[in-house]
């Protein structure tokens, strides 16, 4: 299992135009609907990040990599055909990607103030109590996003989309975000990473053999890979 992260910033139009040549027409159409330039960049670089990873691992051109989606909309590798599973997430200045031989999910969120009644409405009771039992106001927000990213990473790992109600399972055991056993009775595990003090990143997998660190790829290095192609 490996996790990659790219810190992003604005890019010149000439770079964006070149990078767009590596994605499908369908992807270009979806990206064109973004009203904010930052959202377009995040969506574009998210697609390119998995292309870079697969291209380097299997020594194939990034443009030859094809994706498809399951019935719930979760993307998977269509070409090359292999057992590599992946998932992508982005928030604010970060794009992250996880790969493994088994289903995985990942979610990153910027920690910020939020109406904690959301937790009461959408989280399991144990998760809501885990947040409310924290006395420090700022730490309550931190706990909220630990739970939120864990739940999102699990939903993304199983690939069932919005058909899985967020309050139908709990990620909290013994006063901490832990693994869970639901649906198919398989264990799922979580690991929380902190890229910096403003973001929470949680990975979800069917095994607990997580990588120890996240491999950070500098934006210049990332973009140069495609400029050289």
From TrEMBL:
Any single GO CC term annotated in Swiss-Prot or TrEMBL for this entry: cytosol
Pfam families registered for this protein in UniProt: AASDHPPT_N, ACPS
Domain 4'-phosphopantetheinyl transferase, residue spans: 103-203
This protein's UniProt keywords: Transferase
Annotated 4'-phosphopantetheinyl transferase N-terminal domain residues: 17-97
SUPFAM superfamilies: 4'-phosphopantetheinyl transferase
Transmembrane domains' residue ranges: none
Keyword Transmembrane helix among record annotations: no
Molecular function in Gene Ontology: holo-[acyl-carrier-protein] synthase activity; magnesium ion binding
GO biological process: lysine biosynthetic process via aminoadipic acid
Family (UniProt): Belongs to the P-Pant transferase superfamily. Gsp/Sfp/HetI/AcpT family.
PANTHER family in alphabetical order: L-AMINOADIPATE-SEMIALDEHYDE DEHYDROGENASE-PHOSPHOPANTETHEINYL TRANSFERASE, PHOSPHOPANTETHEINE TRANSFERASE
Protein name as catalogued: Phosphopantetheine-protein transferase
Species in which this protein is naturally found: Brevibacillus brevis (Bacillus brevis)
